[in-house]
Amino acid sequence: GQQVMQIPQYQHVQEGEDFTTYCNSSTTLSNIQWYKQRPGGHPVFLIQLVKSGEVKKQKRLTFQFGEAKKNSSLHITATQTTDVGTYFCAGVLRDTGRRALTFGSGTRLQVQP
Amino acid sequence: SQTIHQWPATLVQPVGSPLSLECTVEGTSNPNLYWYRQAAGRGLQLLFYSVGIGQISSEVPQNLSASRPQDRQFILSSKKLLLSDSGFYLCAWSHGGDTQYFGPGTRLTVL
Fold this sequence. Notes:
The complex is a heterodimer.
Chain A: E1 4-7, E2 10-14, E3 19-25, E4 29-37, E5 44-49, E6 55-58, E7 61-65, E8 71-76, E9 85-93, E10 102-103, E11 107-112
Chain B: E1 3-7, E2 10-13, E3 19-26, E4 32-38, E5 45-52, E6 55-58, E7 64-70, E8 73-78, E9 87-94, E10 101-102, E11 106-110
Parallel strand pairs in B: 2-11
Antiparallel strand pairs in B: 1-3, 3-8, 4-5, 4-9, 5-6, 7-8, 9-10, 9-11
C-alpha cells in the first residue's frame, strides 16, 4: 500500500556535526510537511513545502521538496543538543482519495554534547 | 488563538476494562480531527479522522472506536482494553490537508 518512509530510523551525532533525514513516498505528494517531536512531547509543525523543487530554510535547518514531489529531505547544519528529537515528514498522497496526512516513520536524532 | 486539550494525561488500566479519552479544540470551527497512536520509540499510526460531526473514518481495524458528538469534541473509546492498546494517544486538528496541531497526548498503560 501507499506509504511514506524515512531513513535513517536513528542517528547519533556529535554536537556540531551535520544531520540529514530523507523522506520517500510511493505516491506523488500534494505537499510535504515536517514535524519535530521532542522526547516525551507531541509533534510540532516545522514547515510546509508545496512546489516541486522547493527549498526553504529556517536558521540551521534546510528543507527540500523533490522535483517529482515524491521525496524530501531535512538537513541540519552544525547540530546542537536542542535538536534532539524525532523528525517526521508527512504529506497528502495525491490521487488516492485519502484526505488525511500520511506520516513518515520518523528519524530519531540523538546529539552528543 | 486555537488550543487543543486532551485528558487524562496519563492512565493505567487493567486488561478488559473500558476506555474513554477526550479531546476538545477551542478557537476554531469545523476542524478536521484525528486520533493517532504512537508505540514507544515508533511512528504515528492514524486511528480515526473526522471531517464533521458524526462523520468518522477508521484507518485500522481494532477494538477501538471514535465518536464526534460536537463540532470540537472527539472521543476515543474501547469496551475492553487489550495489552496491545498501550501507547501514547495523540489528538490533532487541522483545516483540510493543512498543518496538523497536536494535543499534549495521553499515555495509556494497559496491565
